[in-house]
Amino acid sequence: MSTETNGSTSLLIVDDSRVSRMMIRAFVLDKHPDWIITEATSGNAAIELIKEQRFDFCTMDINMPGMLGTDAAEQILVDNPHMRIAIFSANIQESLRTRAADLGAHFVAKPVTEKSVGIAIAFFKAQGE
Predict the structure, then answer these.
(1) What is the biggest distance separating any 2 CA atoms in the chain, rounded to whole angstroms?
(2) b/e for 45-64, b at 16 or more Cβ within 10 A?
(3) Domain ranges, ordered by start, for the chain
(4) Among 79, 41, 33, which Cα is nearest to 60's?
(5) Buried (b) or exposed (e) across 79-114, using 16+ Cβ within 10 A?
(6) Which of 21, 26, 61, 109 is deepest in the core (most CB within 10 A)?
């Protein structure tokens, strides 16, 4: 995918859990040390960041204070259809999986592990081929 910022791939990690953000960051940088990573603690914060900067990829938690991650993802994708979003959640209800798929996002079940982050990265990279 060639929608890169300063020659590097950019990832926005959106999660209200500091531990989840740190773990996603660590697993991504282990595989892709050249990726530029930005973090947001809510869907509202993510929407504001995306108004200022272009991101290639985004990991989005669903359950956060304020708006749901799926609602934030929907708003983001309206103006940024190029962005690939992986929705992370411990809530694995079929309705949430369906909503993510309907948005064009990929659902990834928590907990955040090397394997779950690898699933998100594979989704991101497959979109660019």
Answers:
(1) 38
(2) bbbebbeeeebbbbbbbbeb
(3) 10-127
(4) 41
(5) ebeebbbbbbbeeeeeebbebbeebebbbbbbebee
(6) 61
Residue with more model confidence, 88 or 6? 88
Stated pTM of the model: 0.91
Compute φ and ψ for 10, nearest 5 degrees. -115, 135
Residue 35 has a CB neighbour count (10 Å cut-off) of: 18
Tracing tokens 């669903």 back to the chain, one arrives at 62
Domain 10-127 is of which CATH architecture?
Answer: 3-Layer(aba) Sandwich (3.40)
Residue with tokens 């979109």: 127
DSSP H helical segments within the chain, as ranges? 18-31, 43-52, 69-79, 94-103, 114-127
